[in-house]
Input
Amino acid sequence: MASPTSGKKIVLRIGGSVLGSPPQAKLLKGYVEVISEARKSGNSVGVVVGGGSVARAYIATAKELGLPREAQDMIAIEASRLNAKLVAMKLGVQRVSTTIQGMTIELEKNGTGAMGGLRPGITTDTVAAILGDAWRSDLLVKASDQDGIYTADPRTDKEAKLLHNLSYQELVRILGGGTHRPGIHSIVDPVAAKFIAKHKLTLVVTNGFFTSNVRKALQGERVGTLVS
Ligand code: UTP
Output
C-alpha cells in the first residue's frame, strides 16, 4: 500500500450522476468522512459537485420552454450549487463558492470548500480543471459513475476496455472530441479533457459510487485510470 499523501492540494470532482441523482445522504456522509481523513493527513481538498439528474430535468424543461442553451446551462448550474451546498453544510464550511478566486481563498483559509458550476458552456469537470490549475493543485480526482476511462464508451460498446494509465494525448483522442451541449454526460467532458491535457494536470478517474475508491485515490493509491 502506498503511504498516505500529506500536504497535497487535491481537487475532488464528484459527479452529479453519483451524488445527486437524487441526493444520497449515506454516500454524501461517506464522502465527508473520506475528505475529513484526507484533511487529518494534512491535505487540502477542494470539492466540485455536479448537478446530476436534477440539473438534467431542469435542462429538459428549459429546453421545452424554448429557452436558449445559455439559460439551460444557467439553470443546471443552480442545481449543482444546491448539491454543493449540501456537501458544504455537512463539511461545516457552509458557503458555496461561485468563483474560482473565491474558492481558492476559501481553500487557503479553511483547507476545504465546495462549489458547483461556474458559467455556461462548460460542465463541472471543466470547473474542477480550472480550479486545479488556478490553485496549483497536485491532483484532480473525478468520482465518476464509471470505473475509469475506457477505450470507448462502456455504456454503448461492450468491447470497451478499462485503461489504467493514459497519456494526455490519449485523453484528448478518446474524450476530447465534440463540443459542449447542456446536460452532456461524459466520463470527462471534451472541454475539460483538452484543458487537463494543455495544463498537464494529474487526473485520477474512479468509480465514485464506492467511497473506498475515492479514499484510495486521495491517499495516492492506484485505482481506476491515471492520466499523467
Ligand atoms: P454537471 O457538471 O453538473 O454534470 O453538468 P454532472 O451531473 O456532474 O454529470 P456527470 O456525473 O459528470 O456525468 C451538468 C450541466 O450543467 C451545466 C451544463 O449544462 C452541464 O451539461 N453547467 C455545469 C454549466 O453550464 N456550467 C458549469 O460550470 C457547470
